Structures
1.
Amino acid sequence: MKPFWDGQPEISRDLACVREMIARCAAAEDADVHAAISQLLSASGKMLRPAFVLLASRFGAPDRDRILRIAAAVEMLHMATLVHDDIIDGAHFRRGVATLNAAKGPRTAVLVGDWLFASCFSLIADIARTENARALSHMVARICAGEIGQSADRFTVHTSRRRYLRRITGKTAALFSLSFYVGAVESGCSEEVQSILRRLGFCVGMCFQIVDDILDFSPGASDIGKPAGSDLVQGVLTLPTILALRADDGGLAKIIRKGPLSRRAAARAARMVGARGGIDAARLEAETYTRRAQREIQRLPPSEARDVLAEVTTRLLNRTW
Amino acid sequence: MKPFWDGQPEISRDLACVREMIARCAAAEDADVHAAISQLLSASGKMLRPAFVLLASRFGAPDRDRILRIAAAVEMLHMATLVHDDIIDGAHFRRGVATLNAAKGPRTAVLVGDWLFASCFSLIADIARTENARALSHMVARICAGEIGQSADRFTVHTSRRRYLRRITGKTAALFSLSFYVGAVESGCSEEVQSILRRLGFCVGMCFQIVDDILDFSPGASDIGKPAGSDLVQGVLTLPTILALRADDGGLAKIIRKGPLSRRAAARAARMVGARGGIDAARLEAETYTRRAQREIQRLPPSEARDVLAEVTTRLLNRTW
């Protein structure tokens, strides 16, 4: 794991417990599942979603073991979508490590993703309050539908900003929002605090995904384990491209419309996106969501957790990986 | 749908409602999901699992709408595993129709399977009793682990009868058992009847899968939409092969151990399985499960539903498709 939570020893320790819990859950299964999950865990990223479950729970009176399990379930759900995304994208690397799909083939990747999905639901059904179990189930359906929408939009230059925002709501912001929300509900926060945290999660998720999509254009993006411009190669139009197309003379649209892009064509298109101001404009949108997030944070009761959230939100906007 | 339930107009009508419910659920999503689900539904098979939910519920006092939804959830779960199985097997046809994977590519197949999984959990979380939601979630994890086990065993001539039975428990009998059980629990059957129906579902599921695996060897197996011997081509050793290997002089084992089999080698191996008595021996095991199922049925309170179960159980043993 990259040292994103190094300044927060308590969160770091809890996230280590979450990883251990997931590994233990996999250890009860066949050796292949265990090996695959261990590999995924060793390359786990910032673990933002479980961290947000933990942070949100601090605004109530959390039962630590219960919250850790819910955090584990949320991370397993995220892992499932990553594993299946890698099959869909035919990706060979993620975070600098060979994907399960590349290392073990689609057979294992499909099954391990399904196992993660199912285990997440098992964990949630066992421990969560009924309303949380429902919210989580609906969320997953929504996330899948979001992914299918992204799939349908490929190589379509008419993808609108609005359609993009709706897509990333389903793909990312919904799960961020849910992470905050389940943490709040399970620790017995007041309804007002639950609502603030749910909206905060949404804004953080939107900002996170827009920044992620911007980083895909930066030459240093290999830090996050993907080659630069990989979205364009896949034909996925993200906010910088969509906003650049508004200032386009037709040259950029022409490249994209052709269908599957070569690495070279994608790099050229990526430069055109920058030259047409798409990256700067997308950055402004990310900043807007960060400001909305900070306003929600100010409405929370003052506490150490609140300070951590304020700091992390700014750091997520300014990150380079 | 093949006319398996033609003699049961009420079940046929209810199954039509189940299909409609699933279609409606998909219609609320993006057009691609809707098209994919419609295609899957048009090629739906005997719909045994939802039919068993419905039949089991008749031993209690079912709330029809609620039971139909649960039946739909169970069928969606089954559809999800079929769609993902087709990716894993690289299958081009199922029940004579092009698989989603072949028609639309793995991208759509992965996502549609995930959407079905998630929608099943949503339905269940919304309506089922908490204990049923839990049982179902655990079951799915178990089914996935069963599939991964099958994957790990490919081309292994040492797969034992016991290991095979454990594998099909996870792969098939668990969901059959659950279908009977949720029908019973949700309609408020006594604990004794719940237990009988759960065990009955297990026996019917075991018999069903063994017969399915026998049919894979029969020349007329193309009726079920797969070419004969397709399990052997995939390197999956089922009961007839496992039992034939006990009477093998080494010739059959040698072919299998070589790894991926050509169509011709698989056909030769399939003939050897028959010649070594593997199919007859597997048939005896299927009959044993049918007898156990009939004993459980006799313990149920006399009713029309009981007569239907007795008739269907025998028909499943003797089916040729």
2.
Amino acid sequence: MKAADIVVIGGSAAGIPAAITARRHYPEKSILLVRKEKQVLIPCGIPYIFGTVGAPENNLIPDDTLQNNNIELIVDEATELKPIDKKVILASGESVKYDKLVLATGSSPLLPLIPGIDKKNIYLIKKDVQYLHNLLNVLKDVSDLVILGCGFIGVEFADECKKNREINVTIVEMLDQCLQIAFGEEACRCCQEIEDYLEKRGINIITGVRLEDVLGDDKVSAIKLSSGQEIKADALIVGIGVRPDVDLAQKAGLAVTKGGIVVDTTMRTSDPNIFACGDCTTKFSFFTGQPSGLRLASIATTEARIAGANLYEISRKNPGVVGVFCTAIGNLTVAMAGMSEKGAKQCGFDVVTGEAEAADRHPEAMPGMSKMWVRLVFNKVNGELVGGAVRGGPSAGELVNTISACIQNRMRANDIAVFQIGTHPAVTASPIAYQLVNAAEIALKKMKS
Amino acid sequence: MKAADIVVIGGSAAGIPAAITARRHYPEKSILLVRKEKQVLIPCGIPYIFGTVGAPENNLIPDDTLQNNNIELIVDEATELKPIDKKVILASGESVKYDKLVLATGSSPLLPLIPGIDKKNIYLIKKDVQYLHNLLNVLKDVSDLVILGCGFIGVEFADECKKNREINVTIVEMLDQCLQIAFGEEACRCCQEIEDYLEKRGINIITGVRLEDVLGDDKVSAIKLSSGQEIKADALIVGIGVRPDVDLAQKAGLAVTKGGIVVDTTMRTSDPNIFACGDCTTKFSFFTGQPSGLRLASIATTEARIAGANLYEISRKNPGVVGVFCTAIGNLTVAMAGMSEKGAKQCGFDVVTGEAEAADRHPEAMPGMSKMWVRLVFNKVNGELVGGAVRGGPSAGELVNTISACIQNRMRANDIAVFQIGTHPAVTASPIAYQLVNAAEIALKKMKS
């Protein structure tokens, strides 16, 4: 029987950093990572396989990180967990003993329960190299593609599938606008621009409808919407969300809810020797402590760094999910941290907002200039920043992390207004126009009046 | 006689935000800004006039910000300040009464005291449209240009003057490496890469020497170095630093030191009705409280936002200069916040560092990828972040602001290791490889061992 001090089940955005963090904090321990995939895909990079990067092989997380950190790897599926014996049974029949266990079993894409959903040429976004190869092959013969769901996956898949391919693409979304859940109604200008861009590229977007039926014999030939409309479809890609993979934990008697494997703020499950992190666990909001449904690779890695460090000695605490995310379509990058205005109000916060837009170069004649727009949401009662949205060029992806730093440190508008920034003509806004600071000033002025 | 509740002297990176902040905080007050320049240049954009943007007119701060904020503008020079009468005398003979005064008189470039420095074709970097037009014209007939000083101005001027121009450019620097004062010895890899880039472009860099003599009749024809070497020069551009413009304050009897007009942490001078901000004031370090010689437009704007808000009611305090800066040469952006390792040690800190490098896209096959390198410096005693350097693509300019947020909030390595980030394939590193977090983890590991 195999044995290691620390065993990690899962080898993606949670499993890898959990193992590496454990190595950094417990250099003397033996660490073993068990995963079922031969090759691990970069989860957020999957849409780009279908256009920009061209193949699953160009979107892999290399195994050398594990080797360099002296982490043993077993490619096998964990089928049973025996907490009392402190061991894991693998599909091969092999058993693995552990002293501390980390569950990083991830999530699986949801399939809508509608007639005909079991037909051929219906694809989920599975983190599986061979499965995505099959989808790439199928797309060669597809002239009409329907994508169900207009969240990040829907938007990015539509844009990428349209690249280097003669294909009609239609996105079907039950809400009123693409990316609405992610960005809230306040950032609808961003969502609208993304829709406009996709439509300019010839992508058909149908919102405010549900998928009711999948037509065709053994293979999908068309879909029927709640509006009665039928749309020709040689293939259907479904990106409507995920559910946590909790089977292993649940069968072993660990506490599990609909939200995932139950963990405390140290990332420990109901068994003191078993930790869990990533898409498979319950989450709660940084702002309210209420359960959070957000599932992001970046959240998974943060949780993994908490779990991996706490295995033998608690030194880190999960403050709850802030929620920081980003997408880039064409030349536009949109990003968000924390709560939207609407979301904050729904949670009972009295909020005040401030907006600022300026060129992300100075003077504007500098090459590569985009307009960068920032919107900040503050708690009116104590002045603390609770959310921020950014829209602009590529550096929006890092600017939103500055906003996240301000949120996590519970900075108030008055603090952010005198935030010490670095600027340069070729890469940022001018210090006078710097959006983050000016948005805070504008919110502050509203708070006073 | 003119009169306004609030009078601001100076219309650049300190004066403008001081006036705008006063407007935001005191909507009922009359505000008047006096400046001597007809047109105001973006200070950090000046090097780009000589290449990328082509003319001073493409590098101006528009006056509409003042108009939109109901700030009256007088273009005239303040020649005398009478604090007891609360009035300012202008060069035109006009007087202006104030209730509260903000001095934002800036700084002037230093000229080295060596023989021949008064010859023709020797240029300082003055924030003056006509003066820079003259320099642009002179450069048309120059075949050998020497730039004295290899700080930001030297590096950026050398690169820009070489664009669209048949010209030999030589930089002369008394230290061992370009940008050494800014980045410290630890970031010498960045400095070395910038030197390599400039040399590849045919720019000659001579370090470790002083300028001893300027040769020629009425016009410079060559310069002589402390090494004995003579270098042909049709023009000399001097970028060796600035001194605060304190004349107005000094003659009025306000407290002044070599470091500038003395201000307290509220940005108030020795006269309770007179505030000062920007290059003209004394500064102190965020980390030690010791005097700081840093002069940056971004520091000026932050101080202006403190001064403007505090005029009638103290609500902001200057915590001291963190020092956040950035330059971009070719495809390389280098940025720094806070103290370098060497600087921290010189101040008596026991420090530990962590470094991480990763692609700023994920997978690496995503377009526009650069390697992004981050180095963090922590106080070993309390774990607090005291400095960080970034080297990579354009988004380094915003990433350094995230580091600045961590410094200003006195975040510790253990906090940064679980920092909640947003990531996206097209615009950032992967969450697993995110440099800021990994550099903190590596420093933490060193702290423990």
